[in-house]
Amino acid sequence: MKPVLSLTDVWLRYDSHQPWVLREINIHIDEGDWVTIIGANGSGKSSFIRLMNGLLQPTKGEVIVCGMSASDPEKFIDIRKEVGMVFQNAENQIVGITVEEDTSFGLDNLGFPRDEIASRCQEVWNVLGLHDKQDSPPHLLSGGEKQKLAIAGVLVMQPRIILFDEPASMLDAKSAQQLYALMADLHQKGCTIIVVTQEVEDMFHGNRLVMMHEGGIRYDGSPLEAVKQSSIFQDCRLRPPFRTRMRDIAANWDMESWLESVE
């Protein structure tokens, strides 16, 4: 299967006098993957996904998105059609004065016919539960609704790949659960999902886990295989997931000593 995203020997730094933010990144992501990227603060994970839609350019190396070079200015518009991004703070990507205006903003800029814009917007609002909010000003929406609006603006573009940067960090538990249910539905329909998070428990939603540390990829593989290796999480300055911690406790538990202590 031909990958939809490829980063080959990619290095990144923002200034020649500063240290490398990313170093020697090599990764290929297939269509239909759900990749969870985790790492501590400063590990480079947010910069990593910003390379995937041309928001950042590598200092060295090559980024190929759906067969197009992300360094080619003539391909930027085509790449943004294929790759949508939902930022951590939804308010940063809300630009319309109503839900309808914000959702249709990208399609309007590309000159889509009004009837197709209306059809796409209505379909997305129905999926996200925003069908009765189309005339509402975004500042009157709840935090969860603002996040849904940000997602609506991405979904109407019908991208092949959606990047989520800390999507649940500003949501309550119920809204976060609804968001991941939506992401699962998109994935089942063939969308490639890439999620950046610091919450290690979120890694079990996807089929592939990438762990980053100090600008490099420390692990790339199955989440279930990573669970067996608590040292990987510790090396990346992350708390291992609950099931890993419980396994380690059980492995080191001396039942006889415990029984003696409670007698």
From TrEMBL:
What SMART domains does this protein map onto? AAA
**Which family does the UniProt entry place this protein in?**
Belongs to the ABC transporter superfamily.
Question: Which domain of life does this protein belong to?
Answer: Bacteria
Gene3D superfamilies in the cross-refs: P-loop containing nucleotide triphosphate hydrolases (3.40.50.300)
Q: Which UniProt keywords apply?
A: ATP-binding, Cell membrane, Membrane, Nucleotide-binding, Translocase, Transport
What Pfam families does this protein map onto? ABC_tran
**The protein's name:** Energy-coupling factor transporter ATP-binding protein EcfA2
Q: How does it sit in the membrane?
A: Peripheral membrane protein
